[in-house]
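**User:** My hope is that you can spare some time for a protein that puzzles me. I have put the entry right below:
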Amino acid sequence: MADKEVIAYPETGWGMPFHYFFDSTVTVDNRAKNGRSTRTFIEEKRWQPVVDNLHEGDYVLIQFGHNDEVQTKRSYTTPDDFKANLEKFVNESRSKKAIPVLITPVARRKFDAAGKIEETHVAYTQLVKDVAKKLDVPLIDLDAESQQLVQQMGPETSKYLYNYLLPGENPHYPAGHADDTHFSELGARKMAEIVLHDIPNLHLELADRIRVVKQKEKK
């Protein structure tokens, strides 16, 4: 979801194309940061500035899980702490009369031998759903929906969604690159579109701010 450094290009976070989807009444302020979990996002004092700058009617799109769930990472967050942190984000957003939206972690590209996509976020996706149900928060199940897209494209074609590069294809990755977690420009846009399409389904007022592209009349 994060804005990526130029040196990482063509790696693209799905938050990067998101601002193109809305009209001039909407400002997208992407505070996501690579490699952070709910715990490290709080510990590094990245969350407090979000709360401090919220205004009534702002939307807070909250997606964590990738870095919380991996026990070998410094960012690992226990399930109980993960839930508590999500609840903190929701409650503190609401205290400023902002509107939180919880989003399950987006799918990794992982197929079994039969070519069926494998779920890699089982526990932490469910924890997001649990918090959404407990606190009555709008939920976008990006995990399930992105899995559907990756499955539809299949084991080979789905590589175009992720940061896959051949040796010599890009100067940032001279030896090539095979990344089943982070997205290409195409993949980021596709994931952002999934979130965009769910906004009207949740009956959020934000749906009224989606940019409508008028077709030019044929002459």
User: Anything to note?
Assistant: DSSP finds six helices and five strands in the chain.
